[in-house]
Amino acid sequence: MNPMDFLEPEELLRFFHCRKTEMSCMEKPQTFLRQLRDYNLIPEDRYKRVSRMKSKENMKAGVYDILDRLEREQSQHIKVFWTCVFKETILHEYPTLRQLRDSLLDGSYHCDLRLAERVEEEEEQDGRGRLALSEDKEKKAKFEIKKRKRRNVSTSNDEQEQPGPSSLLSPGQRKKSKKIHFSSPLKKGEKGDIWTWPIYKSQLPVTCGQMKGTLIREKMETGDRCILAEKQWFKPNEFEKFSGKGSCKNWKTSIRCGGTTLGKLIKEGQLKSAIYRRRKAVRKTPPSSNDSIAESDSEEEHEVQVLSNGEENRTDETEGEEGGETEEEQPEARFDHNQMVFDVTCGALSGTLYKKRFVSGRIGKSIRTDTRWMSPIEFVKAASGQTDGPWRKDIEYDGKPISDLIKADVLKIHSLLCTCGLCSGQSEDLENERNDDECCICKSGGEEELVVCDECPRSFHPKCHLPHVEDETLRPDQAWACTFCIFDQYKQYRSGDERNMEEAMCRPVSLHLLECQYLLLFLFNADNEQIFATNPQLHIDNYSSYVKTPMWLGKVTDRLQGKEYSSVNQFISDIQLIFTNCASYNKKNPEFLAMGKRLKQLFEGEVKMALNISESSDMSC
């Protein structure tokens, strides 16, 4: 019996809403996800991203996110969802889905739906009760306002002519708002401009697009950052860019106070502004071209400079409400504001600058080299030996100083008064910056705690490292080194005699366990997209038709951990099989074919180094 035959979509959707968490907790949900993808209920990219996750907690969160998106964006296909997951082959693999189907068949799901409805009804009744209570408070507030008005009848006429903010609010708005409102001293029928209100003598509420801020008059007169928004200070042109209106290139028309542009307030003398950006216009006056002269004049920027005596000094005026402000070319046009990492150099030293760690040249360890994390100042010192060098100019990205990235607001320096962990300079916070923020094997942070190496910047999930890191391995009074660092130390003390390939392949794995663990970790780390880490059959339906013996890095790891390899040759052969399978399946896919070839070349070079094999030896032996 099919439950879809007698249930309405509304009931199925409510049932789905109540069961999302249960479905997201199913063990090994790859088959479940493949079924949803086959029915076009989830896109291919999201399916691949979630199915490749190694952490169980990340997998649960990813499946729940897929189900949540399906409920919000494809609720009209709810019957298709339940139909496809109630197939017998799917039910056989997931007992949770079978229980859900049985719940629909025997009618027991009604209990859960009634409970959800009851909660919604209680919330609705509670909302009506709060509304009635707020109406009672509103009545009392109106009575108090009337009493205040009676007491303030004797106020002076000058005070009555100054309007308050509540004069621009409708009764409905006052009823909803919980903020303190100032009663308007205007007489009935009079109108007033917001910038003349006494409470706005020192500051003004401003907007630019959907962004709201507070403009401090005194700071604007002195040319400082004068607009506070989202707990940050901005100059007018910076606030314009922050609000997404940077393309306007004229903050005087894009930033408004009470519906009036700042340019008009400045022109009328209601607001005083120093010069924030000034560029001398270059007039192009070709012979017999009056139109060109007029066009050149229109490009001149109008700015108002407040002199010490309070008078206004104006440049050539061509700006009106709709006039454009000509700005000098900004470096931001060359950079991607969404880019998070930057390959930087200082002399012969190279590293990677991480945007989310960047704070200043004083403290933040934002540049990752092969050996450690450094602040920009430390990076310059390591490259040139200078302790007080101009790091903004000395450190370069794409051949240009990183000062261009700072000017373009791609990299942002925190305020000197900032107290965040990156700026505090506390020893504990600086200690946390010594290592990477994500696992160097699976490339994710995840909810699981990372184990950090005391010898290098790398971090690992305990189960991603080889050998796995157990709790008893980590001791507070003892440093912990990763396999990469242990292998580097081992190389310094091993015999310098090189072997040929055949001799190395015949040796038992037990004598070269460290080298094999290092090689696997090296491949995981080099596989940036984690293409070769998981079983390809989980996300490629027809893979078994082309490849008869699938192999992946995770399976090689399990075999090595389970002591299934007797010789080094068996271990190497399984890894070589991964690259052979990749070449067989991706003959018509040059992108993945190139990935496999690249990783194979890296592996073969690393094998010779790890096993001390002569360079002239052939890996095909």
List keywords for this structure.
SAND domain; flat; alpha+beta; four-stranded antiparallel beta sheet; 16 strands; 27 helices; 4 domains; zinc-finger; single chain; 621 residues
Q: Rough shape? A: flat
The fold-level CATH name of the largest domain is SAND domain
Strand order of the largest sheet: 12-11-10-9-13-14
Helical segment count? 27
Overall tally of domains: 4
- Please identify, by name, the CATH architecture of the largest domain: Roll
Helix content: 40-55%
Overall average residue pLDDT: 75
The major sheet is characterized as: 6 strands, antiparallel
- Any idea what the CATH superfamily of the largest domain is called? SAND domain-like
Based on DSSP secondary structure assignment, what is the total number of beta strands? 16
Instruction: Please tell me how large the radius of gyration is.
Output: 34 Å
**Computed structural class:** alpha+beta
Low-pLDDT sequence parts: 141-191, 278-333
What is the strand content? 5-15%
Q: Any idea of the CATH class of the largest domain? A: Alpha Beta
Q: End-to-end span in angstroms?
A: 61 Å
Kindly describe this structure.
- The protein folds into four domains: 105 residues; 120 residues, SAND domain (Roll), CATH 3.10.390; 95 residues, SAND domain (Roll); 117 residues, Histone Acetyltransferase, Chain A (Up-down Bundle).
- It is 44% helix and 8% strand.
- The chain contains 27 helices and 16 strands.
- The strands form five sheets. The chain has a six-stranded antiparallel beta sheet with strand order 12-11-10-9-13-14.
- A hairpin with a 2-residue loop joins β1 and β2.
- The protein is flat and about 90 Å long.
- The relative contact order is 0.05.
- About 17% of the residues have low confidence.
- This is (Atlantic silverside) hypothetical protein.
- Pfam families: Bromodomain, HSR, PHD, SAND.
- Keywords: Bromodomain, Metal-binding, Phosphoprotein, Zinc, Zinc-finger.
- One of its GO terms (cellular component) is cytoplasm.
